[in-house]
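Hi C.,

You asked whether I'd gotten around to modeling the 199-residue construct. I have! Everything is below, sequence then structure, no commentary in between.
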Amino acid sequence: MRRVLRENGLSIVLLSLFLLFWLGQSVAGHRDYNSDQQEHNQPEVGYGRYLGSAHFWEATAENWESEFFQMFGYVILTAFLFQKGSSESKKLNEPEPVDRDPRKSKRKNTPWPVRRGGFVLKLYENSLSLAFLLFFLISISMHALAGARIYNEEQLEHGQSEHLSVLQYAGLLVSGSSPFRTGRASSWRSPRWLFCRSS
């Protein structure tokens, strides 16, 4: 057990912190949601039911979007730009091992994508940035699904006939526009964070 903890300490601590902060977000969101329910003379919901609600998943996806988008940008920028004195930056005037052509490596344990070359090698070389981009796209899809559901439910509550599809809502997220909400304005978080939020 001690060996497992030593060899995987970083992953274990990061996963534990992730789950702890997600739990904190869910508890705070549950309280906020029930406070909003009270203001609108609606029944409160239990914690378990809240975890299945669009409110929880919209807030979760919104947080993940910004983080994955920032990490995607960071990975891309550090591949091309320099910062003197930064341990995250490549050295200004020295060749880096990471820039060597992997196909010319004489190591016997060269990864399969390097031996294969072509399109597979291109995917392998860009796998980290592509992974963050994929996570961002999954998050924005989750946000659009949950956000459209919340918006449409609120429209029905207020006797409005306007209905947004998931694709229409996703378009509003990407464009930075926000649909007009007649009801619970406090629960609406504008998607403009995509272009101006900093953590």
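If it helps when you're writing up: The radius of gyration is 22 Å.

Thanks,
B.
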